[in-house]
Amino acid sequence: MANKEALRIAKLGTTSFFKRLGPRKPYAGKVKAVILDWSGTTADAHVLAPAVVFAKVFEKHGVPISMREARLPMGLRKDLHIGKILEIEDVSKRWKQAKGYAPDPEVNGKDVQAMFKDFVPMQLEVLDQYTTLLPGTADAINYLKNNQIKIGSSTGFTKVMVDVLLAAAKKQGYSPDSSVAGDEVPNNMGFRPAPFMLYQNLNNLGVWPIE
Q1: InterPro entries in the record, alphabetically (predicted)?
Q2: Which residue is catalytic, options 44, 56, 78, 111?
């Protein structure tokens, strides 16, 4: 009984606190930060780097895919991307014809893991060929930084791949203040549309609120 009474009082106290606090007014100050993607946003205008390698990985595993199929899940972390390609109906059919069993699209399944193991070195081998900044990117970044706006970046690439991108971008005049790769977020949550790469960037940058 005493515990119930204590809980009731605690709830009343919490309610009273938030009533005093009131609703938060929308932020109306200056922009403090922007978070940018890599491929197709700041570099690699046609998002070729991952698509080309996805096609090569599937070909290596005996199931050729089209560039359209390689691109369909674009934006996901790369192991998740492979799983989503396996879920494409035509790809799944070709896989079953080639291997005699339906593919396992689960990220921790043997099919995704085997292909992702091949994907990483194959992507690293060619990544520096697709690091050219989009026209105007360096100028836009300089404008933002000159106006005290911080720059964060997020991507479905892994940290070791992002290191390649960062080194190449720096030579071209682009150095984000924070960079978060898909495998840098705890609990395997570094994928879109989940917001946690964004949140990690904002934490790194010391920026709040999100509006």
Answers
A1: HAD-like_hydrolase_sf (IPR050155), HAD-like_sf (IPR036412), HAD_sf (IPR023214), PGP-like_dom2 (IPR023198)
A2: 78
